[in-house]
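Intended use. Records such as the Phosphoesterase entry shown here are meant for training and evaluating sequence-to-structure methods. They are not intended to support clinical decisions.
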Amino acid sequence: MKIGVVSDTHIPIVAPSLPEVVLETFGREGVSLIMHAGDIVTEEALFDLMAIAPVRAVAGNMDMPSVKNSYPDVDVFEVEGVRFLVTHGWGDPITLPERIYEAYKDRNVDVMVFGHSHSPCNMRKDGVLLFNPGSPTDRFYTKRRSFGLLEIKEGSVSGSVIFID
C-alpha cells in the first residue's frame, strides 16, 4: 500500500494550488491514502487531494479557524498493521524531529509524520520512522520544495522524499 504525504502547503497564501507534480505522482503511484501534516490554511487546499484518495489531516499553527475546528492536532490510527501518529509540530525546525519523538514516544506507534519545519526528514529512532515530507509550495528553512510517499509492505513501512526543485 502506498500513502501520499504533504505538509505546509499554505494554500492560497504561498501558492494558489498544489504543484501538478504532487497530484500526478500520487495518481501515478496509486496512493490509497493521503496524509496532510498541517498548515493547510484553508480546507479548499484539500479538495484536489480528496479527488485522488481519502485524506487524513491535522491542523497546523498557520491554519484558519475553520481548519483548526475541523481537524485534530494529533491523529493516531492504524493502516495494514502499522500504527501512525500525524501531527504538525512546533518551535525550532532544527530540533523538531527529536522533540516530536520525545513528545510522542509513549504512544506506541511505528511512524510519526510531522511538518512545520518545511524541511524533509526520513529517519528512524529506536525503530520509529520519523517522517516529514517538507513543503511542496515553500522553501522556508530549506532550499528545495518536496513531498513524500510511504509504502507499507508485509507490515513494514518505508518512506521516500520527492524533491520538486
